[in-house]
């Protein structure tokens, strides 16, 4: 009996350790239309060649509904006032269907910051709306540039590699016309603060 209880206690301890470890595994940040694959959450990349890849997120809209994108590299917190765009990655208005872009990150683009960097993709849809997606946070090393303390402090205040703004949609205005005039009814999804 004592042996069985000891075995059960050992099994529960092992199960607890395994479940705790699973919580630490970085996960992809699910987006609208796409999910970023690389850089992975919490990963470290040196200055120089930098690969960004994404895949269909199996959500609505789907990746095939996204036409072209502009991708930017940000440092800082999760709001416009605490984050700074430091570089455009690839060519603006590139096809989303490519699923990948390789760019160069120069060493002088910023100061390094542990999990202080993330990507923002603004994609146009086939219906004329825009979808905004964010990658998980990652680290860039070997940087020798300068970054305002406001953005560095906001990056350090982020709660882990998965703490980024939520994806959102900007719905294009609906235009209706009558015989004498046209009216516009703008609608949008509010961006999280």
From TrEMBL:
InterPro entries: Kre9/Knh1, Kre9/Knh1-like_N. It comes from the Eukaryota. GO terms for cellular component: extracellular region. Residues 1-30 form the signal peptide. Residues 38-140 form the Yeast cell wall synthesis Kre9/Knh1-like N-terminal domain. One of its GO terms (biological process) is (1->6)-beta-D-glucan biosynthetic process. It holds the Pfam family Kre9_KNH. Keywords: Signal. This is Yeast cell wall synthesis Kre9/Knh1-like N-terminal domain-containing protein.
